[in-house]
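CATEGORY: protein folding

GOAL: derive structure tokens
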Amino acid sequence: MEQVPHNFLGIPAEFSNYDSSKCVILPIPFDGTSTFMKGADQGPAALIRASQQVEFYDIESAREPYRVGIHTAAPVDEKTGVAVNREAERRVSKYLGDSKFVLALGGEHSVSLGPVRAHAARYKNLSILQLDAHADLREQYHDDPLNHACIMARCKEFIPTIVQVGIRSMDATEAQANRADHVFLAEQLNQDSNWIERAVSLLTDEVYVTIDLDVFDPSLMPSTGTPEPGGMGWYEVLRLLKRVSERKRIVGADIVELCPGETQGPDFIAAKLAYKLLSYATKP
């Protein structure tokens, strides 16, 4: 089968047609509010390029998940945070109406708002699983309530249940902004062998997964705008995602904050993570 350039995995055309695909990849290359290292707007394209080196066959599931069909949509091409999220919400709502599973690719973390709104309109008891180094619960940052550091504060306005995993950076106001039993600090994970079961039990039956790549330790994932030491490992994250898919229904997701650097290794890791997440979410 001849691979097709410029789409996720380089999937052959027969498996990337919109009408017959179960999944849609939506690039949202926006980086308007990052305050440390810029470049997250280049993340979706870098991830898609690297994905064309990912093997179609998934060892863990003993199948080729791409065969459900994965369509790569045109990027959301807007210039302001408000416009980006408005268009992303509109596009995702359409895809959900066509019974697609949507994986959005950022871009900075603020781009999650539009996709989350679209899913919340369709799934009335939606919860969010946030994998992240940062709490992102500030009411505003640099006088901007749509800053990437505020994304969970905005989601919390209409999603009651948010479970945060891998957190290791927040300010004093954020420490008081969420229920302590819904926050799984990175430093505590190795001290609690049952943390995955506890985290999953807090989620509703329908789950939106948002993954800021800085949840990983910088030794594995240095290509993020705001890296933090002491992050999670590859298999830790996969065990959590797999367990969520076993006990709950993952109805949508995003992967954000890839800030490509000189080496392409982290781009490939992000692409592999995207394929693993699709494998869990679309399992038979």
Remarks:
- The radius of gyration is 17 Å.
- The chain has nine helices and eight strands.
